[in-house]
Amino acid sequence: MTTAPAATTFVDALRPWMAQCEQLLSDVAGGHAAQVSGPAGDTLAAGGKRVRPMLLFCASARGENDRTALVSAAAAVELVHMATLVHDDLIDAATTRRGRPTVACAHGAQTAIQVGDFLFARAFAELTRVGSAAAVQVLADAALDLALGEIDQQRAAHDLTLSVDSYMARCRRKTGALFSVACRLGAVLSGAGSEAEARLAAYGEHVGVAFQIFDDILDIAGSPAETGKRRGTDILSGTVTLPVILAMAEDPGLAADIAVASRGNASVEPLCDRLATHPGTAAARARAIEQVGRAVTSLAGDVGAADVDALRTIAAGVVDRYA
Asked: How many Å apart are CA 290 and CA 232, to the nearest integer?
């Protein structure tokens, strides 16, 4: 996240809200059967940027009368995110997440399934406390998008003919949906109108897609110390991403090397080095920046009582993570 004065101001203002959310996450994840609450607590302790709760608070009026509802909704969104990480790591056979062993690696596949399901259940249990059927519905819709996005990804595994349009649709489901619903919930629970809700939802979706593209670039160009996982994880799991798609469009000969590496028949490091400096990766970064621009444009109108300056700063911070 950028360190400009404007960022410092809104982060300071959010600190008590984020602290309350963090405490609620800890309370919700703990106090249950040790076989699920222990690994769930470990997943929580691994940290994270907590971007989704931050977006929810910034998209809201942050009124004191709405505080309990907003904190519950923010925790619910983050719990859904945590659940998807646990399940995704199992599906991808990932061994580390944020520099720590994944639940599947540390406790086995069965426990990972149980922990992911537990976190999903706790998310919706917490959101029902808000007393808003609309809030539950929009999070349920986002959870469905997440599941469909994962199905899309599995169906397209090792498919080096994947189109840019198909990749972008997957990003909107797998990442954009939860960013979007975070912003939408902030608007809904603050009583914003339909135009504000739609604009904030669009902002969140564009930021989420940009975030995913940058994350896919970091999988190739980032260091394990920075990302908390080994380079080339997407390639090894057969997940075809935008920098790979655009690199192959310019250099079709890359496809054979990617296919070999994705099946574990060659070291992935030299391929990552090659892709990191490829014009296709630069083109992917440009696409991500374009999504950030669309996000900011979405804020040009009625957005209710949302903190527009903070939302613009968060959007800029998505670019900063790959600067």
From this structure: 25
